[in-house]
Design a protein that fits this description.
By secondary structure, the protein is an all-beta fold. It contains no helices and 14 strands. The strands form three sheets. The chain has a six-stranded antiparallel beta sheet with strand order 1-10-14-13-11-12, with no helix packed on it. Strands 2, 4, 5, 6, 7 and 9 form a six-stranded antiparallel beta sheet that branches. A two-stranded antiparallel ribbon has the order 3-8. It is elongated, with a radius of gyration of 17 Å.
Length: 195
């Protein structure tokens, strides 16, 4: 029973359709604007580079799944997290910037822990996410994002849509911090741009 709050970000579990959860490479800003991100962090695209979703809503690009860059001292890095203000000291995968590998499939499903109780009556509603206790759990390089239960709404301008309760032992709607199944709400890969 999730009686304690131990957020782990968004963890990919499945996808509708036949494409699965493909991971694509996107550039991060080099240096001072590089965000502190971990595996499972929701991300946005701004000015052609990945940014942290921060606390709040969509549209999201997707969910970070790993990071790569060249460290000036230790060489190529492939990690679960990337520290803020990271610069790449060389080319990695053809880029001179740090790279984020992002699950951006609009049909992807994710597990996420709620920061308070959520009921079966909330199925189909939309929620924002919150960075509970910081963006990244340093020991594991994983996100600390959680579903912000206080933001339930029928409006679609939020980060995620509640699809169901995760089918794991001792996980119930009545739990104080349930583990839920969500999908990205209006990810930018589904949006039509004005021509």
């Amino acid at each position: 029973m999730p009686a304690s709050f131990a957020p782990f970000g968004l963890r990919a579990i499945a996808a509708f359709g036949s494409h699965g959860n493909e991971v694509r490479a996107y550039p991060l800003p080099n240096g001072a604007n590089c965000p502190d991100l971990g595996k499972g962090s929701p991300v946005k695209l701004s000015g052609g580079v990945i940014t942290s979703a921060g606390t709040g809503g969509g549209p999201l690009l997707g969910v970070a799944n790993g990071f790569a860059w060249v460290d000036a001292v230790t060489g190529p890095q492939l990690r679960n997290s990337i520290p803020a203000d990271t610069s790449s000291a060389g080319l990695y995968d053809g880029s001179d910037r740090p790279t984020a590998y992002v699950i951006d499939n609009p049909s992807a499903l994710f597990l996420i822990q709620a920061d308070a109780s959520v009921t079966a009556g909330d199925l189909g509603l939309n929620f924002d996410v919150t960075a509970a206790g910081g963006d990244v759990k340093a020991a594991y390089g994983t996100s600390q994002y959680a579903l912000d239960a206080s933001t339930r709404t029928s409006a679609v301008g939020t980060a995620v849509k509640l699809i169901g309760l995760a089918n794991i032992p001792d996980n119930n709607w009545s739990d104080p911090f349930p583990i839920l199944v969500v999908k990205l709400n209006g990810p930018i890969m589904q949006q039509v741009s004005a021509a």
